[in-house]
Specification:
Blueprint (H helix, E strand, L loop, with lengths): L1 H5 L5 H19 L3 H24 L4 H20 L4 H12 L14
Helix pairs in contact: 2-3, 3-4
Length: 111
Amino acid sequence: MADRLSEHPSFGKAVTKDAEAITREMANRLRLNEGQVLRLLPINRTKLVGLNSINREYKNDETTRAAKAAELEAQYEQECSRILTPSQLSQLQQSNSQPAQAPANSGNGLG
């Protein structure tokens, strides 16, 4: 169903562009081969559509939204484990567990 959503005009182009960017970044970081890239692209697209849907459907329920996002992430990692080598999967999990770094001039008022 998520793949059908990704074909919807309101999702299609933006989600596909984002999924391509994510897959490209993964290809560079994890040194993916062409077959892996081709198999990961629809998985990344499905994940983005799922996240969009979760964020929209549960926008007023932080607890449920977080639980659904965690469930989606677990499914995503399971799909990735079928495509990536153990070493690549480990690198992916390490990079996903690191907090996103704030830009140098984030203006957070700390110094």
